[in-house]
Amino acid sequence: MPPKQKKKVFESTLQLAAGEAPVAELGKMLGQTGVNLVEVKRAYDTATATRRGDIVPAVVTVFEDRSFELRLKTPPTAFLIRKALGGDGSARPGHDSAGVLSREQVREIAEQKLSDLNTADLDAAMRTIEGTARSMGVRVKD
């Protein structure tokens, strides 16, 4: 007889600093579920310890027996663009430029984000990244 499936009661995506998840933030999102917040923090911090300084989204699924599952995603596109630029986006996109990304930088970001995007085509992923960069006031040079 196959094992019973656990019943999912709550699922949420959290965007936290890698290796340094604040319990207060976890409490805001997961407090009502009754899951052990310290265990969630410990699991997240252990899984993301090698990526300190990044924002790493995690999908937390809580089951009816108050156990949980943690699935890590890639950092947000805007975070990766800001990291490649070494600064923030423009306060007035379309009017003021925040910087310039090279095609190679866009390709690196697209390769990193490919698993979380809704395409398997690298060129389509690059176009998606370029669109996000444009909306931040960042130009892409050929």
Q: What distinguishing features does this structure have?
A:
two-stranded parallel sheet, alpha+beta, 38% helix, Arc Repressor Mutant, subunit A, 5 helices, 142 residues, 2 domains, 5 strands, elongated, Ribosomal protein L11, N-terminal domain
Structure report:
- With 142 residues, the chain is an alpha+beta fold.
- It folds into two domains: 8-72, Ribosomal protein L11/L12, N-terminal domain (Ribosomal protein L11, N-terminal domain, 2-Layer Sandwich); 77-141, Arc Repressor Mutant, subunit A (Orthogonal Bundle).
- Helices cover 38% and strands 23% of the residues.
- The protein has five helices and five strands.
- The chain has helices at residues 23-30, 37-48, 77-85, 103-113, 122-135; strands at residues 8-17, 55-63, 68-72, 99-102, 138-141.
- A three-stranded antiparallel beta sheet has the order 1-2-3, with helices on one face. Strands 4-5 form a two-stranded parallel sheet.
- Helix 3 (77-85) runs antiparallel to helix 4.
- The N and C termini lie far apart (58 Å).
